[in-house]
Structure formats: structure tokens, C-alpha cells
Amino acid sequence: QVQLVESGGGLVQTGGSLRLSCVCSGSIFSRNTMGWYRQAPGKLRELVATMPSAADTNYADSVKGRFTISRDNAKNMVYLQMNSLKPEDTAVYYCAARIAGYDYWGQGTQVTVSS
Across residues 95-109, what is the average pLDDT? Predict the structure, then answer.
């Protein structure tokens, strides 16, 4: 079974930084497209960043230049470094993996940015 577990969320002030981590088990990690999504109260879940491979990354326009997705295939880990955080970044952040055409999700970790 595939399991993804996020960690690293918390409460920070505007302009602060957080690093989210996600460990993935139950699949061949290096062959999976990994991603981060977020969902704010009353909003739809939206894409934050994806990393189809060790060399390719994609970002939502709203986070470009501030967030960085990375992965460590040897550790089955994917990370999201978040800098210059804004109140509008407040959301539950979810780690995701696309495996054989299906999406798997972690439980989410809360990120709150105070204004």
C-alpha cells in the first residue's frame, strides 16, 4: 500500500520560512511524479508544485520565486521549501504522488501565516 506522510507545517509570520517534508512508501519512489497541493478554507485544492523527475519542476505562478520543490530518491523524500511567506499561503498542504495513473495523498499539514 502507498502511504505519504507530511510534516513541517506550523505558524509563522509574514516573510518567514517553513520547510515541508513528505516520506513516501509502498512504491518505487524514483519513478513517481511527486507534488505539493494546498487547500485553504472555502477554496478548491490547488497545485503548488510538481516534480516529475529529479530534473523537472513546475510551479504555480503564485509561488514562483518563493517556493522550491526538491526530492531525495534515496530517502524516498520530497520537500517544499517555502520562503517569503504571505497570509494568502495559509492552507493545508498535501503531498501527492502519481503512480500508474492514480493519485495518492498524504494527510496534510497546516501552514498558517499571520499578517
Answer: 93
